[in-house]
Amino acid sequence: MYLCGFPCMVWELHSAHITQLMAMSSPLQNLPTLISARGNGTTTAARPPRGRHGAVQAAASDTSTAVSGGYEEGKLARPKWAGETPLSRTVQALISFRPLYSVLKLVARRVLISTAEKNNIPWKEMTKEVLESEVYGEVDSIQNQSIVYPDYYFKPFHAYDEGNLSWLAAAEAEPAMLSMAKRAVPDASSAYEANQIMRGNWLDAIEQHIMQYSQTSMIHNILDLGCAVGVSTRYLADKFPEAEVTGLDLSPYFLAVAQQKEKTGVPRKFPIRWIHADGENTGLPSKSFDLISIAFVLHECPTTGIVNIVREAFRLLRPGGTLALHDSSMKSKVLQELSPVLFTVFKSTEPFLDEFYLTDMDETLREAGFVNIKTILTDPRHATITATVPL
Ligand SMILES: C[S@@+](CC[C@H](N)C(=O)[O-])C[C@H]1O[C@@H](n2cnc3c(N)ncnc32)[C@H](O)[C@@H]1O
After folding, report:
1. Which CATH class is domain 9-39+46-388?
2. Model pTM?
């Protein structure tokens, strides 16, 4: 089952759907009173930063800086529904109640698909196209039979009982991503445009960082750690056509979809290489990349996983290399004001969200050895954190 392919999928739920959810589950009827959070879950107008490099204005230093990138920040350090607040604990207790969790999972999935389709994302068609394709043949050439999965990877996740280890999750990943982008940038005229804006701002933040802090702007080798079905990987390969790009993920199903899609696309000077490995311990040579991107991955990992992945990225980068993390921002005003039902459903599909929100990312990066740590809100819901390996 699939509820939230990416961080914000569940935020596709609209108020009418919330009513539907409530009607179908009696425990949910009491939810708004059980949780005394404020906020209406609506989004404020999104304005992409103007100009290619207009958003980041940080002086070279080894201290951390954060800028809003033109998007609105909330007043809190993190949403009240995340972390170790009484509200967060109440939500956690609610979603641990199995019958309620099962209802949330089923209803929200149905609503998500229909909402995506209303946004002109042909969810069912895209999924069917993958499931009825030759994708199954790709697994043999990709799967690393000796891989040892971290324990957390086997948890039910995004409302799929098998987490990311399933064909359905792999087939639905791209429409899910589009749906998330449209929710993140609601002013965009389509989900495709929203994805362009969201990804464009992330790439601009990376480019700006490289220009500011690396002695050379030449990028020869890029790793997209946690590449899923290759959406972020293709954006990186298009942005840096002279670089050799590697997409790495723990799910052989996701990688099979990525590889098959790439095979049917326009040939590249440097074809993307797909690797089935654990980002915590990739087995790849030290100092072999100039840029590592980790997009929408760390909110799916427990704190130990986050720390290990950041350390591994430090090991894999060359001196002067750049790390870019792209994920939900706890400073986002939209996320801080999410309605009670929405954040409850959201948390029910993201088992490590509290750990992610409680991890001090700047400190984690500093402890791993990174300098020039910059955070910028690159759309109303997500931040891009960039950092450098010292020369
Ligand atoms: C939301 S998807 C990433 C989406 C993709 N980066 C993009 O921006 O389009 C998160 C991915 O992280 C992967 N992942 C989680 N933990 C991992 C780990 N320890 N090593 C490698 N990949 C991991 C999951 O398998 C999943 O495909």
Report:
1. alpha beta
2. 0.83
